[in-house]
Amino acid sequence: MESPNQNQQQESSSGSSVMCHLVSPEGDHLGAALYLPHNVGPPQLQEIVNHLLHNEDKLPYAFYIGDEELSVQLGAYMQQKNANVEVTLRIVYQPQAIFRIRPVNRCSATIAGHTEAVLAVSFSPDGRCLASGSGDTTVRFWDLSTQTPLFTCKGHKNWVLCIAWSPDGNHLVSGSKSGELILWDPKTGKQLGTPLMGHRKWITAVSWEPVHLQSPCRRFVSTSKDGDARIWDMTTRKCVIALTGHTNSVTCVKWGGDGLIYTGSEDCSIKVWETSQGKLVKTLQGHGHWVNSLALSTEYVLRTGAYDHTGKTYSTAEEMKEAALARYKKMRGNAPERLVSGSDDFTMFLWEPTISKQPKARMTGHQKFCLTEY
Fold it and tell me: Where are the WD repeats (predicted)?
């Protein structure tokens, strides 16, 4: 009676199977060598690897022989390459990325503490801290590990409507329904100086000057229901430029990476401003109702500055500025900075403000107000 090894040797000699060794990308062998039939291809190899690795979820793999991906059955590959059947075939299995949608079925944490409605939340540029503003007139900095407040900051006399981190992560500014702006130190939770006063009505939005234009960050722009936008210098604690020209409430503002400020208003227009003297560069018109929100194509890198997924820290302001500029240039590429506006007219417009006053596209389909935001 013939042994199983003798049967395998006979199958091999007859050319009906191939001896293979499955190897990880690091070079580790997955078990002993196997005699595999000529009709085994990538789907069957994938089942074998999942079985040998005891994967409960059937993970996808690609297979390589040398530098070439195996896309046919072993027999066809041997014929194409005129390979020697007496030599063990070394097959490297490479795990592939999994794109899978999983339903959210539980809340990972409930962060309680505010005693009134939470009206604004924002992560720090490095993603390590969370700040919130509330109708209880406080600003809170949160420990994301314990879901407890690091600091509860009291200073506002009315609802905190908006908050914004400086792109270098060193400061947070909050605006309230009383029209006041307060600067906070995230490391201590202390208020920096007295509130900045100048707006006659409540604050609607705040945006900082990008860190690749100025490091450390000093200036930010605020907008208000009073129809004005104001540029503030946190060092001198003064409004250095007042941007006036809108005929109704200014609802939103963005400080772009090219040094321009964009303001959207209930007067249905978007105005573009330069920031050295506060001159109006151009007015973008097209919406038939209030402009509710603005979003920039470069907004993510403007908000996060020099910080990325690597968690790298910077020892000097100049080093941070150079890193932020490199990220901005890579993000923007050869294309101009683009702007999207959302309106009460149920439409969105795509603009290239540095090139033309005319919109690149008018996007329709919404049946209610457009409140776009990155």
Answer: 111-152, 153-194, 196-242, 243-283
